[in-house]
């Protein structure tokens, strides 16, 4: 009997597969796999680096006290002064854990640390180093400065040391007991300006036709697209509010430094002539003009602190000190998220106002409306403060937010607005229905006006030999095709819509401020005001900072003196919470003090949220309607 397997024919030899050709998509796939491998390596480095620092911090925490008596709180803020981070939590954590600072500093962090330090017996004084601070406006600086004033009233000293201080940095420094400047440094106040680029000639050469529809004699936001210079109305309005801001700067700095305001103004204006008296020595000139109290190198500063009773620090610290991040971690400054005590909810609206859901750094009509709605529906919310720092943006997105403010008031929850550096145009739109509006004297606000823009490019196409032609079912069919000239009748249609938008804006402000339409129209017209000028004209109710607004909201809700304050922000994912908590934890700060840190290249990984300009949000072939103010002094 024959075995069945033996009866089977031997298997045929398998032919070798033909060589695979790596085409274009094969190359892309290979690159993609390589990128994925690199991504996994980076994530693992970050993850295990976080665990290592956290573990070493816990181990070291039992061997060292994070803050001892006679410690100096060193505040050296870097980057932009903001109401809310627009840099993601991972990037901030990586910066901190590599020994660098994220290039943004929150106003609330500085104010919270200063106020906590005023009551902390371990903190003997504050050393402020403002050189690397990039302030966007003066209102945030004023709020931090007022916190420094409260610290000084507690009996403790504020010392400033810097190299080169611009007028924004010096505005903050002027709140100190003593200002020292490096021999190679100086103070350079120059005044305020608002210069812009004008694109009309370029657009004409490219054949781009810009159709501007606006209401407001002073609504100049879109002028660079239709003019080759600033209009007389624009210069007149800008000179008024810029002059108001500069007068506030002069008066406040002069008062704090015991200088005659007229003398200080003349010194700034005559700087080129006065610098000759010191042979180009800016530090000596600052001494002569009483802007600083002394000239000292950083080592001389250390020697002064040591002579004044500040002990030596650990390891390589020249004196006993703690930085902003370390102090915030030690004090755990901020509201307890698990608290059930009724209190005041704060929603931050910072950045340009655009449609949809947006991350921090932009005001999304849907996302900010959602935060206000969440605060309103939360049983812990007895009052709401809307902190506004915005030049405006899209009309409908602003209206979405305004409606939520109105609904919150109708629900019996008081709403108070606190204006930051800027709350103009759309920033004012979202503010106007609050129970009360607070602004700083140097807040930029107003700009109650509206404009729409539409671009067409038929001449541009003709320049390269392309023409558009065809048929439509009616006179409006294809009216917004950017390849065709704009029909004058369509222009009438758009202008009518803009006119209606302006009437809505002014009418809503008049209703909210209990004034008639004509009274608001007279101070609207797209004109920009400082906070003080707006108060004089009834557009805001009171001058004050965020703390004043919070206390007002608590009073309206009858909360008494014992109430919580919490920020309502989009929730972070689990990994974001991990890196944020580890990056700012006291354990991590101790580990950094022992020299344990991530490689510096980790902090320099590309950011995924680049700043976008307003008109990148524009949709081609669609008229875009804005309540926007290009009003940032420099």
Structural class: alpha/beta
Rg over alpha carbons: 30 Å
CATH architecture of one domain: Alpha-Beta Complex
The profile of the biggest β sheet is: 8 strands, mixed
Stretches where pLDDT is under 50 for at least 5 consecutive residues are: 1-25, 60-65, 573-615
Number of helices: 24
Instruction: Choose one word for the global shape.
Output: globular
Q: In total, how many beta strands?
A: 23
Average pLDDT level: 83
State the CATH topology of one domain.
2-enoyl-CoA Hydratase, Chain A, domain 1
Name the CATH superfamily assignment of one domain. Answer: 2-enoyl-CoA Hydratase, Chain A, domain 1
Measured as a percent range, the helix fraction is 40-55%
Report, as a whole number of angstroms, the end-to-end distance. Answer: 103 Å
Classify the beta-strand content into a percent band.
Answer: 15-25%
Give an overview of the whole structure:
The structure is a single chain. 40% of the residues are buried. Helix 2 (24-61) crosses helix 23 (586-593) and helix 18 crosses helix 19. Strands 11, 14, 16, 17, 18, 20, 21 and 22 form an 8-stranded mixed beta sheet that branches. Strands 9-7-6-4-1-10 form a 6-stranded parallel beta sheet. Among the domains are: 68-205 and 239-332, Alpha-Beta Complex (2-enoyl-CoA Hydratase, Chain A, domain 1); 342-448 and 533-562, 2-enoyl-CoA Hydratase, Chain A, domain 1 (Alpha-Beta Complex). It has 24 helices and 23 strands. By secondary structure, the protein is an alpha/beta fold. The protein is globular.
């Amino acid at each position: 009997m024959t075995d069945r397997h033996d009866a089977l024919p031997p298997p045929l030899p398998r032919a070798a597969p033909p060589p695979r050709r790596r085409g274009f998509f094969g190359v892309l796939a290979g690159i993609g796999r390589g990128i994925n491998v690199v991504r996994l390596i980076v994530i693992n480095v970050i993850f295990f680096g976080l665990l290592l620092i956290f573990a070493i911090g816990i181990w070291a925490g039992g061997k060292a006290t994070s803050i001892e008596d006679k410690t100096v709180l060193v505040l050296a803020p870097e980057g932009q002064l903001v109401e809310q981070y627009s840099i993601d939590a991972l990037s901030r954590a990586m910066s901190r854990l590599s020994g660098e600072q994220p290039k943004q500093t929150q106003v609330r962090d500085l104010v919270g640390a200063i106020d906590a330090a005023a009551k902390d017996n371990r903190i003997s004084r504050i050393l402020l180093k403002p050189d690397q601070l990039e302030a966007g406006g003066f209102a945030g600086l004023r709020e931090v400065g007022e916190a420094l004033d409260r610290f000084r009233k507690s009996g403790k000293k504020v010392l400033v040391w810097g190299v080169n201080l611009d007028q924004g940095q010096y505005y903050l420094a002027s709140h100190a007991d003593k200002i020292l400047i490096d021999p190679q440094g100086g103070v350079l106040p120059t005044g305020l300006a608002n210069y812009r680029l004008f694109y009309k000639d370029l657009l004409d050469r490219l054949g781009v036709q810009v159709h501007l529809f606006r209401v407001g004699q002073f609504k100049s936001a879109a002028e660079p697209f239709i003019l080759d210079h600033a209009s007389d109305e624009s210069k007149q309005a800008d000179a008024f509010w810029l002059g108001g801001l500069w007068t506030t700067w002069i008066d406040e700095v002069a008062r704090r430094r015991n200088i005659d305001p007229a003398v200080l103004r003349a010194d700034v204006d005559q700087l080129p002539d006065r610098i000759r008296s010191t042979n180009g020595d800016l530090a000596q000139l600052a001494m002569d003009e009483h802007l600083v109290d002394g000239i000292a190198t950083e080592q001389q500063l250390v020697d002064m602190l040591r002579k004044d009773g500040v002990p030596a620090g650990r390891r390589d610290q020249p004196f006993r000190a703690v930085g902003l991040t370390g102090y915030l971690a030690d004090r755990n400054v901020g509201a307890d998220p698990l608290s059930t005590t009724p209190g005041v909810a704060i929603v931050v609206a910072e950045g340009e106002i655009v449609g949809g859901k947006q991350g921090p750094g932009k005001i999304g009509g849907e996302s900010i409306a959602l935060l206000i709605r969440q605060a309103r529906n939360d049983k812990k919310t007895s009052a709401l403060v809307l902190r506004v720092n915005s030049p405006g943006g899209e009309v409908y997105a602003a209206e979405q937010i305004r409606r939520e403010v109105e609904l919150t008031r109708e629900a019996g929850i008081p709403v108070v607005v606190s204006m930051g550096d800027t709350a103009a145009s759309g920033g004012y739109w979202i503010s106007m229905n609050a129970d009360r509006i607070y602004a700083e004297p140097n807040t930029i606000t107003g700009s109650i006006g509206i404009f729409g823009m539409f671009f067409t490019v038929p001449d541009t196409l003709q320049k390269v030999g392309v023409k558009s032609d065809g048929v439509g079912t009616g006179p409006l069919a294809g009216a917004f095709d950017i390849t065709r000239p704009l029909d004058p009748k369509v222009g009438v249609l758009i202008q009518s819509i803009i006119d209606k938008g302006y009437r809505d804006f002014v009418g809503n402000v008049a209703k909210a401020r209990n004034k008639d339409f004509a009274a608001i129209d007279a101070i609207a017209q797209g004109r920009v005001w400082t906070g003080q000028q707006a108060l004089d004209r009834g557009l805001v109710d009171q001058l004050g900072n965020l703390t004043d607004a919070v206390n007002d909201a608590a009073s309206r809700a009858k909360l008494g003196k014992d109430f919580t304050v919490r920020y309502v922000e989009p929730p972070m994912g689990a990994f974001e919470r991990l890196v944020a908590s580890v990056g700012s934890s006291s354990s991590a700060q101790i580990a950094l003090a022992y020299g344990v840190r991530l490689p510096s290249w980790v902090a320099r990984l590309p950011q995924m949220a680049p700043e976008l300009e307003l008109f990148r949000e524009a949709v081609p072939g669609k008229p875009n309607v804005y309540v926007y103010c290009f009003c940032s002094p420099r």
